[in-house]
Amino acid sequence: MAKEQLKMIKEADLKNNCPECFNQELKLTFYQKHLISRLFNKTTSEVSHEIKCLTCGSVIYPVSWTEDIERSFEYFQKLTVPEPSSVKLTKLSVWLLAALVILAGVLAYLYFAGILKDWL
């Protein structure tokens, strides 16, 4: 089973007022989803975000955004460049693939040499 992990790709301080406590200490963070398994590490194209007030500690959801927060969010969203989606094999999967190729080569050699034909 692959574990999901969110990696931060961009963080920005917003100069907008918090809708809860009206202070100007908001932090916008963009995350990219990564799937990590024993056999592969996959970077997805899924990007999520979070706006948090540093004063009151509340998460500001899109329902309570003001127009200023929306404009700031759209600006920083255009600046955010996620990593391209990709799949990287781990060392374990590379070793398993190499062992499989070597085993197939040995079996093909034994078959064409006539040694394996006697067993079948």
Beta-strand residue percentage: 35-45%
How many domain units?
2
Q: How many helix segments?
A: 3
Unreliable stretches (pLDDT < 50, length at least 5) are: none
Fraction in helix: 25-40%
The secondary-structure element order is EEEEHEHH
> What is the overall silhouette?
rod-shaped
Write the layout of secondary structure elements.
Layout: E1 3-14, E2 26-36, E3 40-53, E4 59-60, H1 67-79, E5 86-89, H2 91-113, H3 115-119
Antiparallel strand pairs: 1-2, 2-3, 3-4, 3-5
Describe the protein.
The chain is of the alpha+beta class and 120 residues long. It has 2 domains: 3-89, no CATH class; 90-120. The chain has helices at residues 67-79, 91-113, 115-119; strands at 3-14, 26-36, 40-53, 59-60, 86-89. Strands 1, 2, 3, 4 and 5 form a 5-stranded antiparallel β-sheet that branches. A hairpin with a 5-residue loop joins strand 3 and strand 4. The longest helix has 23 residues, at 91-113. The model has no long low-confidence stretch (mean pLDDT 90). Keywords: Membrane, Transmembrane, Transmembrane helix. The chain crosses the membrane at residues 92-112.
Task: Output the keywords.
120 residues, alpha+beta, 2 domains, 5-stranded antiparallel sheet, 3 helices, 5 strands
In short:
Helices cover 34% and strands 36% of the residues. The chain has 120 residues and is α+β, with helices and mostly antiparallel strands.
